[in-house]
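User: Could you check the structure of this?
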Amino acid sequence: MTERALLLRVTLVVAAGTVPLPAPRSLAAQDTTAGKRVYVKWCAGCHGDGGAGDGPAAAYMLPRPRNFTGGLYKIRTTASGQLPTDADLLRAIDEGLPGSAMPGWKGRLSQAERRDVMAYIKTFSSFFADTSQHVVPLKFSSPPGGGTGAAALKVGRQFYDSIGCRKCHGDQGRGDGPSAPTLKDDADFPIFAADLHQNWRFRGGGAVEDIYRRLRTGLDGTPMPSFADLIDQKFLTDEELWRLAQYVRSLGPAAPPDVRDVVHAPQIAGTVPVSPDDSMWARAARYWFPLVGQGIHKSRWFAPAVSGVWVQAVHDGRTLALRVSWDDRTESPDTAWLRFERRILETVAGDDSALPSHGAEPWPDQLAVQFPRRLPEGSGGMERPYFLMGGANDPVYQWRWTSSPRRALAGLARGIERFDTLPGAPAGQATYDHGEWRLVLTRALATPDTANEVQLEAGRAIPMAFFAWDGSSGEHGSRMAVSTWYFLALDRPTPPGVFISPVLAMLVTLTLGLVVVRRAQRRGARHIS
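Assistant: Sure, the predicted structure tokens are below.
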């Protein structure tokens, strides 16, 4: 099996695939021979035949697959430097590791298979066979109350600053601290500081309890230390460490974002906002769309830096305003990140060539919003062009924005290599603030160029897709993050009659009811008299 075919197989398993589950057997038994069969079929492609994290697909991944031979694991309930428990290993196998290529195997493999493969993984390291090792989980305290209150979060923020979290994770927690471009793991691979605003991608879990445990145990093999010694040294208390965990948790959303198919753009009174920081955006619904590495067209890219975009939209009946925001650790081009970019290019393999001859360059950040040229008609009204920037005979209409020079363009994409600009560019304003881009693109709903520019009609499902490039990660050309097709819907204002008619009907019904009651009362009085 070729490396590309293997990587495609791994990608399909990660994305959604399920495999038939054999009949269950005793969960207490662990069969390393059976575990080896499972490992060879499903795990060796990434982790390697010998468990050294060097499978054929590993070179395309960042972070790299786990090297099992050293017995060093990030996600544990044991102290720093200690082996994980069986429960720790099973949890990683069952649930996967978000933010990496490791999928959850619960539902794909039977319970017996997962236990067997766990037992086999342990055979790669002699540390697990060392009887002098006493693998004991730490005893964790319960979280103190009031964790979402202002006072508790203030304490957490104070320790976020005082123990140096901001040096790597940044002032606002988006992984853009001054040390971020220098980070590497114990195997000398470049490593991103976690974006604390995306807690649904935390590999050890995004709950307050999960974050507290990572602070206690550290992430062995990475620059993330354990802070348990600070408690031992009386520098902070256990409660204060909980406050830090609660503060970190407060940076992300209360629940993982739902991926919905349609962005609804309400019609507003007055003109649409053109600034990314207009107060109106605080009242508009936000929609999250995940992005994945471009793995179809050479040169493929399986390690995108931008994991998704938040999208908002409004219109005033004449003009659309589309706000796209996304986390990006650096405002590219940024020479301070050139060495980090080079390390990424040297680490993540390409299927066409090795490190480009020109080496790392100060590429800009870029974003593209894609539409069909014309809205689908007739019975095939949901038919769309090829999602990956169309084709030579069926181009797509795109808005493209770049950070340097700071501008927005409109044009027709005829595949990844060809983009023909059009005169009618959208207006664009962008703001970069503490690791986040906020971009607003505005354009008239109807334009004179009906042949090439999509006409944005209210009440229609308008196909829409997104592409993003992080210049400081060496992304340009086909090295990018992509989405599938989604939809934009320009909502019509609700006619006044929709609200007035029910009120009128209620008033008429009430009036008739009072008349009937009054007449009945009069008849009753006459009958009594």
